[in-house]
Amino acid sequence: EWINQLEAMVWPADPRPMLMLGCMDSVFDVDFSWPPEAARCVMCATCVESKELRRQATDALIQAIAEVRVSPQLLGEHMARLGEHLTLKRTAEVLASVGQVSAQHQSAVFLVLDEFVSHQDSIAKDLHFALTPMLEAALSSGLTVSDKTRVLLKSIGGSSKTARLARQLLSAKADPAKQLVSRVQSACSAIDRAERWHALRALNHLG
């Protein structure tokens, strides 16, 4: 196929060209830390019409977060960069599903959405789609909004759903005990990955 021919034309150890074309195969590699191209590719897939692509994006996010291979802030940044191409309802549904997996995933989802909201210059009419899973993640993870996000949320007045969610997020309290659960899970995942890399290096050295 043409996609395989194109892949053969680039350095096989560098998956970024394929990611720029929307090929998500490399994001499932357990030893692949996501660069910006991977974050953008997967976040694009979260908002497309295809249910199959959204499912793949969901699986990729669940796996990469569990294995500490992706920065939530990087995901949030590229989510914001999609701008008018972002279908917020679909992406929010994907992130809500990701957050159901574990405390570690809820923390990551919160950080993704906090970063996304912090990049907003105005209040989008569909912002409530993002704030709904963000509030659930905040209550589950014990995290609170960043200063930049807090400024934006404070600017939302009225009695709309978006305004109510904003007030709830602003009033949420930090919970160190809940935060610790997520940190322990992330630390264990990072240790498992480091041990696997150490074992692989030892085998290569013996070879």
What does it look like?
The chain is mainly α and 207 residues long. The protein is globular.
How is this structure best summarized?
With 207 residues, this protein is an all-alpha fold. It has 11 helices and no strands.
Which features characterize this protein?
207 residues, mainly alpha, 11 helices, globular
Low-confidence parts? none
Q: Please compute the radius of gyration using only Cα atoms.
A: 18 Å
H/E element sequence: HHHHHHHHHHH
**Span of the ends, CA to CA:** 35 Å
- What coarse outline follows from CA principal-axis ratios? globular
Tally of strands: 0
Mean pLDDT figure: 88
By secondary-structure content and strand pairing, the structural class works out as mainly alpha
**Separate helix tally:** 11
- Largest beta-sheet details: none
The amount of beta strand, in percent, is under 5%
